[in-house]
Model the fold of this input.
Amino acid sequence: MNRWGRLIAAVIAMTMIANLQYAWTLFVRPIMGATGWKLSQVQLGFTLFIIFETWMMPLSGWFMDKFGPRLFTTVAGVLCGVGWAGMGRATTLMQLYVLYSIAGFGAALVYCGATTVGLKWFPDKLGFASGLIAAGFGSGALMFVPIMAYVIRVQNYRAAFLYTGIAEGLVVFCAAQFLINPDPNDPQIAGKKGKSRFKLRSGAEQFTSLEMLRTPQFYVLYAIMLLMGVGGLMATAQAASVAETLGIGRAALTAAVTINLLANGGGRIFWGWVSDHIGRERTMIIAFMLQGFVLLSVLRVGRGSPIGFIVCLALVFFTYGEIYAIFPASSADFFGGRNASSNYSLIYSSKGVASILAGWLAARMFETTGTWTVVFYGSSALAFLAALIACGLIAMPVPTKHRQESPAVPAIKSVEP
Done:
């Protein structure tokens, strides 16, 4: 199979796990209604899912760099299917947390395996390939959302968990059989390099993860991704609760979730392609500034206006999802592609920290204040701060592992009188 076939398999795998994150908001209110649990209690499950999805990736990335993604992604299909389907049978909060965490670990393996394919098979199209794979995760729930909404309405949320969990587990299992690491001498990838009229970073040395952790570039990338992750994850987890507060009906919410997925996936492909042509940092600055402005608009334009709510929320997702296209490519730009899976996995773990702010803490702030103002305005401020830091990232050079030694100065011999 050629590299494009493997890319398609990676996108399919990512598509099948997308509902674990992006369809979750449809289940929050039904779960609360059936169990009596509070919003912050239910959203702690989302936070745990993201933590397991992100903080388990560095270890899985190291294994995939060494042994390839096929085996681990195969196991992931089982974990995702069992975790998501089992949540429909959860009768206690602890059961919900454990099952969602299992699904999160499975999602980490799928995400890492699929990203490995893009970074290692497409050195000449890093932004585009990463964007396409990330779009599978960003838009994949599109096919599930109408089905889930229908099943929840005519049956219950438990049945929706069960049916989609079984389907996604089986498809991921099959797609995993086509995910392998390439031979560096494969003519499909040997000698390929991206081109741009702007200067893209190139010639990066091959850093291991431990070596990368000793560079300031890693911590700058980590901080930017953390700041930008809060607003998008908050919108993902809290969309249903925000809609209820703003007076938006169920039909408009379902339409918003559907369009959000299109905007999320389309944004990842678009911004990934843009970054291949104008550079990663310039793309970050533009997208992050836009994200800050659209987060401010949701509460103002969306209040009582279904169309305004749908449009503003879609723009939030269009300007948020690009971090999952740009940062895998930026990681390879700075630290090389040989250990791309484990290196990007460490940067991606920032999403777990962001989920604590966007899931549980955002819900607690709403319960305390009765309004989403602080949450949205705070997220907007973080996006503007990320854009400011990205301006400084432009000036940062590609890191090197060894400093060049200065030429030895010949010793001056003393002359005896």
Q: What stands out?
A: The CA atoms of residues 133 and 228 lie 19 Å apart. Confidence is low (pLDDT under 50) at residues 404-417. DSSP finds 19 helices and no strands in the chain. The longest helix spans residues 216-245.
